[in-house]
From TrEMBL:
Origin species: Dioscorea cayennensis subsp. rotundata (White Guinea yam)
Positions of ATP binding: 152
Catalysed reactions listed for this entry: L-seryl-[protein] + ATP = O-phospho-L-seryl-[protein] + ADP + H(+); L-threonyl-[protein] + ATP = O-phospho-L-threonyl-[protein] + ADP + H(+)
Broadest EC class assigned to this enzyme: transferase
Domain spans labelled Protein kinase: 124-329
Gene name linked to the record: LOC120273443
EC number: 2.7.11.1
KW Methyltransferase (keyword) present: no
GO molecular function: ATP binding; protein serine/threonine kinase activity
UniProt protein name: non-specific serine/threonine protein kinase
Length: 329
């Protein structure tokens, strides 16, 4: 075979390995048209160690490996994701638990926190005090964003019947008030109880109470008839909303000229949703008389339940007082 320099085995359906001679391995297109089992080191042929069946077996092995690896990796990633989520949830739960120790309720849609409000009034510095009452102190908080808030700080007296069992009832009622949305009702943003003190955060209303407008010499001069009608009209809308459009219906229980505030345009804003009563009534009964003297419906002396009609009676007294410029009683 030393003198052989050209071969052609094409289209003979040959199988098996080709000879190892140089002329057999260097031939090009000499094996076209043969069986798939023909193998060797010549150009165009499969290596004898890589028969079609072996190649198919290798492909099947690779496919099986991929089919096993992808689910395993996917499951591993899922387990890691679940573990991280559980860890974050445990962190959030601990934060919520710490908050609940202070009996905290807050509007989650706000862009500020209670800590921001406390910083704005320098942790209840007297310089920010704008009013005092029988149930606490009011502070004015101006946030860096320009929003102005009123912070009411109520102290529980040692004789108060507000115990731990009643705090949850109070905050449940406050939770309902967080959902109130009306132009004639002061917006409550949240509340917190801690160590015998309740903090409540509202929008700040510029002109103060309706009492100031009626009985302050300067304010009374500018409080004309059109403004008085506007106040009565807005107060009626607020009560109609509370009694009919809220679910559950809300009874204010303390409509008076002290609890109606006026903004810069003399638009009325109902405030103090029975806060004084929330802080003093026994949660187990509703028989106690609630409200401000001079505005309380007379039927409360013998009724066992406060109704919307009690609010309407108080509204009538306020309406007469606004019209007359003095209390009708």
């Amino acid at each position: 075979m030393n003198d052989l320099y050209s071969i052609d085995f094409s289209y003979n359906m040959l199988t098996g390995p080709i000879p190892s001679g140089e002329v057999f391995q260097a031939a090009y297109k000499a094996y076209v048209g043969n069986a798939a089992g023909l193998c060797g080191d010549a150009i165009g042929l499969l290596s004898c160690g890589s028969s079609p069946s072996a190649e198919r077996s290798h492909k099947n092995h690779t496919t099986l490996l991929i089919a096993i690896t992808i689910p395993v990796v996917g499951c591993s990633l899922m387990l890691v994701t679940i573990a991280l989520a559980c860890r974050r949830q445990r962190t959030r739960t601990s934060e919520v638990a710490e908050t609940e120790n202070h009996s905290f309720v807050w509007d989650t849609g706000l862009k500020f926190k209670l800590t921001d409000v406390m910083e704005a009034i320098d942790n209840f510095n007297e310089a920010y005090c704008i009013g005092r009452g029988s149930f606490g102190v009011v502070y004015k908080a101006e946030l860096p964003s320009g929003q102005v808030l009123a912070v009411k700080r109520h102290h529980f007296s040692a004789e108060s019947d507000i115990q731990e069992r009643n705090v949850r009832s109070i905050l449940n009622e406050i939770q309902i008030l967080l959902g109130v949305r009306h132009r004639n009702i002061v917006k409550l943003h949240g509340a917190c109880t801690k160590k015998g003190v309740m903090y409540m955060v509202y929008d700040y209303v510029e002109r103060g109470s309706l009492r100031d407008a009626l009985y302050s010499v300067f304010e009374a001069l500018t409080f004309d008839w059109a403004m008085r009608v506007k106040v009565i009209h807005g107060l009626a809308h607020a009560l109609a909303y509370l009694h009919n459009d809220c679910s559950p219906n809300i009874f204010h229980r303390d409509i008076s000229i002290n609890n109606v505030l006026l903004d810069s345009d003399f638009e009325p804003k109902v405030s103090d949703f029975g806060t004084a009563k929330l802080l003093t009534h026994d949660a187990s009964t509703w028989t106690a008389i609630v409200g401000s003297y001079g505005y309380i419906a007379p039927e409360l002396a013998y009724m066992t339940k406060f109704t919307d009609k009690c609010d309407v009676y108080s509204f009538g007294v306020v309406t007469l007082e606004v019209m007359m410029g003095m209390h009708p009683g």
